[in-house]
């Protein structure tokens, strides 16, 4: 490719169309193009240089993965978010690096105490060490005190990437996004078994069904008595 490029450059410089612009090019560039044009490129040397470059890139990549790298996920596990009912929040921490992550601290300040109550677990926790290739899960149960739309934002994470490093690495979890908390009366109207409603319906329909049944039963009893008397005679 370099040999073809040099031929194109030198042919352009030698043509009358680009002669004026070639005069303005520095002598070193013109000499380099002339050198490439006159002498074919040593492809063996290029292969050696490419191999050395690949080795350097691989070595740099290996050095990068020797440090700890954390991927942190925050999820809302409930299918429906309902006022006054528990919501399960799940935090997953994955170490995809080559070293153990140290002094891990996760803090979630997205749940305002005026709107949410923590019923189980902690919204801030610490972990001394997380080995490479391993993961840990932390679960918190909260209870919304009111209904409406809320933006579930990310939690903050800090950790050290190796034993030798004293500098903290900061990260954020994934954001679950906006979610609507349903009023409990709407949820009960859609998904509850409606036992009270069915009981009230039964009481209301009992007279309309019971009175005809009593009349029919009395008539049936009288008819059967009359039939029995005729059979005796």
Which tags fit this structure?
alpha+beta; 3 domains; 10 strands; 233 residues; single chain; 6 helices; disordered N terminus; transmembrane
Residues in helix, %: 40-55%
Alpha-beta classification: alpha+beta
Helix and strand succession? HHHHEEEEEEEEEEHH
Rg, Cα atoms, Å: 40 Å
Q: What is the CATH architecture term of the largest domain?
A: Sandwich
Number of domains: 3
The CATH homologous superfamily of the largest domain corresponds to Immunoglobulins
> Please, what is the average pLDDT?
79
Report the CATH C-level class of the largest domain: Mainly Beta
Spatial gap, N to C terminus:
125 Å
Spans of 5+ residues with little confidence (pLDDT < 50)?
1-30, 32-36
Major sheet: 4 strands, antiparallel
Query: What is the number of strand segments?
Result: 10
Written account of the structure:
α1 (2-14) crosses α3. The chain has six helices and ten strands. Strands 1-2-6-4 form a four-stranded antiparallel beta sheet, with no helix packed on it. Mean pLDDT is 79; it is low at 1-30 and 32-36. The termini are far apart. The chain has three domains: 2-65, no CATH class; 70-187, Immunoglobulin-like (Sandwich); 194-233. The relative contact order is 0.12. The chain is elongated, with a radius of gyration of 40 Å. With 233 residues, it is α+β, with helices and mostly antiparallel strands.
